[in-house]
Design goal:
- The structure holds two protein chains of two kinds.
- The longest helix of chain A has 18 residues.
- Chain A has 23 helices and 50 strands.
- By secondary structure, chain A is α+β, with helices and mostly antiparallel strands.
- In chain A, α5 packs parallel to α6 and α12 packs parallel to α14.
- In chain A, β41 and β42 form a beta hairpin.
- Chain A folds into seven domains: 117 residues, Roll (Ubiquitin-like (UB roll)), CATH 3.10.20.440; 186 residues, FAD/NAD(P)-binding domain; 142 residues, FAD/NAD(P)-binding domain (3-Layer(bba) Sandwich); 57 residues; 89 residues, 2-Layer Sandwich (Alpha-Beta Plaits); 82 residues, Gyrase A, domain 2; 102 residues, Aminomethyltransferase beta-barrel domains (Elongation Factor Tu (Ef-tu), domain 3), CATH 2.40.30.110.
- In chain A, the strands form 13 sheets. In chain A, strands 9, 10, 11, 12, 13, 14 and 28 form a seven-stranded mixed beta sheet that branches. A six-stranded mixed beta sheet of chain A has the order 41-42-43-40-34-44, with helices on both faces. A six-stranded antiparallel β-barrel of chain A has the order 45-48-47-46-49-50.
- By secondary structure, chain B is an alpha+beta fold.
- Chain B is 21% helix and 35% strand.
- In chain B, strands 3-4-5-6 form a four-stranded antiparallel beta sheet.
- Chain B starts with a strand and ends with a helix.
- The chains are: A alpha+beta, B alpha+beta.
- Bound molecules: zinc ion (ZN).
- Zinc ion binds next to loops of chain B.
Amino acid sequence: MKRLPSGGRIDRSAPLNIRFDGRTLPAFRGDTLSSAMLAGGVSLVGRSFKYHRPRGIYSAGVEEPGAMVHLRDGPRHEPNVRATVAEAFDGLVATSQNAWPSLSFDIGAVNNWLGPFFSAGFYYKTFIGPFRRSTWFWMMCETFIRKAAGMGRASYMEDPDQYEKRNAFCDVLVIGGGVAGLSAALAAGRAGAQVLLVEQDFELGGAVLSDPVGSAGDDWVARARAELQALDTVRILTRTTAFGAYDGDTYGLVERVSDHVKVPVAHQLRQRYWLVRAKRAVMATGAIERPLVFGGNDTPGVMLAESVRSYLNRFAVLAGQTIVVATNNNSAYAAAADLAGAGADVTLADMRTTPPVEARTLAETAGVRLLPGHGVIEARGGKRVTGARLVPVDGTGRAQGATQTVKADMIAVSGGWTPVVHLWSQRYGKPVFHGEGACFIPDGQDSHPLQGAGTAMAAASLSEVIAQGFDRGAEAAQAAGAPGDAGKAPDGFACRPFWQNGLHPAWAVLTAQGKTLGKAFVDFQHDVKISDIDQAHLEGYVSVEHLKRYTTLGMATDQGKLSNVNALSRMAELRGKAIPDVGTTTFRPPFTPISIGSLVGHEHGRHFRPTRLSPIHQWHVEHGARMTEAGAWMRPWYYPQYAEDLCTAYIREAAHVRAHVGMVDVSTLGKIAVQGPDAAEFLNRIYVNGWKTLAVGRLRYGVMLREDGFVLDDGATARLGAQDYFMSTTTANAAKVLAFAEHLLQTAWKDLRVHVTTVTDQWAAIAVAGPKARALLAKVSGADLGPGALPNNHLTHAMIGGVQVRIHRMSYSGELAYEIYVPAGYGRHVWQALHDAGGAFDLRPYGTEAMGALRIEKGHVAGPELDGRTTLKDLGLEGFASSKKPFVGSVLQQRPVLEDPQRPTLVGLEIEGDTGAKPGALLYAAKADAKGHGDGWVSSTTYSPALGRYIAMGLLKNGRTRKGDVVRVEDFVGGQSLTARVVSHHFFDPEGERKNG
Amino acid sequence: MIRIDCPVCGLRDETEFTYGADASVTRPAMEDTGMQHWVDYVFNRDNPRGWHREYWHHVQGCRQWLVLERNTLTHQIGTCHLARDADLAVKEAAK
Ligand SMILES: [Zn+2]
């Protein structure tokens, strides 16, 4: 392994300092980590997933199964980075992974000798085998397996980098910047279409980059690039992977903005996630070379032939000196010839007995030793290839004579090419079999907005690649409505064989008895051997999808890139069928691994979702309120005095309301304007109670059900004008109620002349409660709020602090209470005016915890009781339901199962002792065992300052007839056992006299 | 991600919409007290393989309820009408 003194597409004037496992590697700008490793003589890079076998560099691209490393350190540490696509940068630090204590001496390698223990279906068998009932055994195994069979470790540190999401639109998305993609972009761009051309590499050119510098392809690519750059309708994104194709012709891309530098420059992103909506797309994703299957085919030093050629021509690295090239097709001849030309000693074993004349000539002219009708049956060597065992083979790849071992430090293999059809398959399902190429390709149906072109469609020659790319690009532009003409396709250029012409469909080299010599892998990443496929077959697996899951073949990042056809051909052979009859698995996004950060973008921490703030929010913060989340809202939880904790504060606040006066910000309540001539009829249908008689200036509490008869929500609705109602909902259900109302009005109730509009954000709301509430409000507003002027369930208009407000007299706390509705922009101003005037009345703000304590004392239901499982009867609200009219849910609430008297019904619980119950605790009869689901559960719980004890609400079977009983309250999560007396849930002031003031 | 051509707002991403319900069932009249009618309306659903009519709500757009044709097999999107016009549109198409 060495760097050649000249050549390659690297910038020798820009040397880079990079290190792998502490060792400095010679690198230049334009290198990848893997090319630098090869230039520095690194052959052992990692250990395999299950057996901890030594793994080296196998490829030069995204298909790399072995050379996976930890890249960077500290918070930017990233596991499972494929060295073959990690662009070299100054200061790069990488370390080996999945090895302990060191890469060279790895204890996990004993798994290699415990092989049978890890064979196909190991996980499943452990689950369903003799140990299935012993959880401890599985847990113990899992701990061991997870440690031993692993990939890299993730960092636990916070990601310091920025990511963003970007939305984009285009007429034609061209995926792949090789010859086919460039041709497609030229055609579409010339026609005037908006084109987005994306290439995962940092350079355009695709396969041309593997040709020697100065080849005819270089000029061709340079001309195409120049023409595209001059078109202002074409945008080119390099370092960008199209990883997923989705419904609606949308595509997910990840642009690696800063992965090629040590640290992103200030204010620059690390990666950008693009969501592209494309009218048409051309998939010019090329093809991936296919491995051959033989014993030890995972040994470091076994590599894909075209990848070896790529290291030679693109990176000026000769990866071996004594090289055996093994092939079943023509394309490896280019690699063999170039390697021999660079001074390597090359033997070419071709499984075909009579290779075509052009191929022979190419090899022989370059000085390659050619062995037709031969295969490599075993790679020799441990941590590095030391030799190749060659054998004459028949048409099925079985040995036909004696083996001979030749010295070699590299075995370069080519089993043909596998078109990269992932994006197409993600979108349209199973690709079709292409007999000549023995591969799967898109079905070519014209109706698909995503079309393949080039070697992704198994194009067999350069002229075909150009023609397909150009035609698909022109068609896409036309279909997208581009005005112009694509003109004439570019001419071709001279190039070496790059496609698997003359492919002989045999991939495994076996003994005459059909066995492998040693472990022969089809999936290098998941350590799936050909014998695992044989075993799965013996165990009766016939579906390719089952085989995939049983053996884990083609899972993880491989996604069938290397393993697919070789596994399918083995399955087909075992079943005596053709490959297309066995079928192929479906590909799933992402095509290559993408970082979680790129998907998250800015949506984490405080930006995970929008935060909703009341118009009075800032006042609460400035006055020391502890805030709590309620859905998307932030609400004041309690206002600690000095160092008060939550409990002390809420008990003080709740007691203060009952003794003096308090105010609480209830702006988060859902508010819906219900307007129109049929508004009363609408309310009459959606609420269980009647609304036809509600006069202007009055308000009423209402309950609504879902269509299935369970309680949906409750709240008060006020009549502001003849055709103008103001509905309030709970904070949690505001959006649900509005959407439900809109649905009914736009579908079943189209005849009702009603409009519903959310006005939640238009109004701030302040509840003022307590014996001194009337006196306070009368003073600040100057309005007559006497019991005669503003009785319960009435509203009036008034001025507070110069602002016109609405005062609704209604009580949630059970005290004399009002709700003040203020235009949102003046919410804080009016709150402040109340606060300023409140001194004389000892007004204190209170938070949601005290509000909850007050409502539990009164036995009002809230979110924990309105949990979607409770009926009017369960909650003791059946008295509200009108029997004179139908309403939403009126029929289905009468289902016999909901009439069962055994159903849990709402009860109050007086907790014995000085500890409160936990919500969710289960209720059991006093003498019953605490087993099973019990007789019910605790829904809401608080300390009641009014009663001087802990109380709770709950739902209890036969609750109505169990008043006075003692029940057990069991919290299995917290390990708490209590007893409680069943009482009415109207704990405090059951007659409701206090609210009359 | 499916994209929906809202008659009010134009072609928009799925993320602006919420799925509502099966649009092939008809809500019984308010005064209908037949238990089975309501059970059918709320609970009983076909699970078709192929084209299906569904209610979608343009909840982060015009807030209109739409009747959308969606193919449950291919996830293709067919016609899209305002729910308030949907019956009309079906009749028109039948002509
Ligand atoms: Zn819309």
